[in-house]
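Task: sequence design from structure.
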């Protein structure tokens, strides 16, 4: 089959979490919108990867068990457990997402107060100290164990072995990569090719990462795209496109922002921090930004635009046999499915969906065994076509 006639492989990933500052209602920001998302996936035969923010869940579970209802009528930790088990039974992939500022979080005056010193995974010490009770390895191991304790009773073969760090803040990544490999992780999806940000809450530098390589084997750093012939850890970057920053604020994004007003105002403030004058802030919105393909926030037109870019990128890819594209969304932002549905309806014959676990299996078949995959991965487009 010619490259231009092949279906485009898309991997939908959902970051499953509350707001970064600890605010939000679990049922409004996680349970209810994720139920809608899972229903949507079921309608169209899509299997997705859910990145579960484990540390906030563990803190809420501990608080509930200590007798603090946190304003809830029913146990939010139990609701999370039930939803993830349900999602896994439907064939979705559940993997690890960590914002380490939850480790020291305290519930005070009817609200959560995360520790701002540890927003970034790179700030977690290698060994526990007087400020942070877990070393880097212990933190990741605890998150991995929490997921496996939850899902192994459902499937004895389940393994938590794919990771995404909070806020993409994984650079410098050498120590993190070392620990991920030591704990048996086989993939990471934290990189945004071309993107750069460095402030109090976000630090990542992917300016030297090419968007021509859809995945690669990680050497010492996640951002090293050298042709690694061996090694267990794959990087699956989140697909991005360079645009003028102001262009991302179309009506669809504004509508979601108005519904999640507190969270989105905080995000903007974080990213314009240090720009004191109105001129500097105005220039900020005129700068280029590498915008991730967000299936929750994008209008149909923007998704179609990113699809065209992905098709071009696939045709220019260094991996002709397999060029997957990772999309991102957040549970708290899946508030309406209309734009995504219209996008799927228009492009149904072009698309195939898979989980990150399936993508890893396919990459291993191609690059480790030296053979072409045997098409055991279900072509989700068959059900997608039937749904219309």
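Answer:
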């Amino acid at each position: 089959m010619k490259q231009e006639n092949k279906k485009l492989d898309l991997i939908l990933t959902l970051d499953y979490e509350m707001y970064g500052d600890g605010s939000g209602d679990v049922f409004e920001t996680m349970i209810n919108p994720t139920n809608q998302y899972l229903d949507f996936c079921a309608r169209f035969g899509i299997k997705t990867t859910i990145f579960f923010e484990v540390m906030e869940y563990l803190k809420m579970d501990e608080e509930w068990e200590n007798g603090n209802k946190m304003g809830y009528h029913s146990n939010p930790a139990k609701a999370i457990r039930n939803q993830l088990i349900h999602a896994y039974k439907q064939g979705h992939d559940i993997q690890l997402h960590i914002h380490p500022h939850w480790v020291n979080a305290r519930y005070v005056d009817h609200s959560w107060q995360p520790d701002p010193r540890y927003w970034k995974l790179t700030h977690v010490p290698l060994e526990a100290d007087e400020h942070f009770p877990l070393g880097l390895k212990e933190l990741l191991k605890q998150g991995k164990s929490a997921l496996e304790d939850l899902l192994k009773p459902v499937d004895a073969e389940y393994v938590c072995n794919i990771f995404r760090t909070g806020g993409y803040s994984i650079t410098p990544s050498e120590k993190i990569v070392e620990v991920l490999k030591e704990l048996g992780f086989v993939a990471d999806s934290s990189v945004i090719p071309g993107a750069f940000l460095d402030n109090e809450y976000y630090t990542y530098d992917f300016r030297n990462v090419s968007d021509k390589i859809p995945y690669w084997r990680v050497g010492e750093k996640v951002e090293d795209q050298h042709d690694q012939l061996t090694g267990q850890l794959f990087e699956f970057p989140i697909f991005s496109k360079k645009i003028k920053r102001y262009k991302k604020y179309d009506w669809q994004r504004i509508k979601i922002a108005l519904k999640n007003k507190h969270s989105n105002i905080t995000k903007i403030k974080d990213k314009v921090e240090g720009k004191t004058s109105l001129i500097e802030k105005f220039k900020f919105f005129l700068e280029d930004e590498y915008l991730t393909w967000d299936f929750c926030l994008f209008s149909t037109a923007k998704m179609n635009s990113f699809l065209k870019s992905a098709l071009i990128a696939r045709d220019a890819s260094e991996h002709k046999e397999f060029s997957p594209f990772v999309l991102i969304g957040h549970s708290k932002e899946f508030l309406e499915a209309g734009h995504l549905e219209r996008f799927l309806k228009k492009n149904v014959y072009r698309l195939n969906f898979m989980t990150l676990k399936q993508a890893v299996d396919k990459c291993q078949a191609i690059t480790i065994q030296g053979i072409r995959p045997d098409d055991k991965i279900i072509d989700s487009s068959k059900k997608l076509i039937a749904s219309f």
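The first strand starts at residue 8 and ends at 16.
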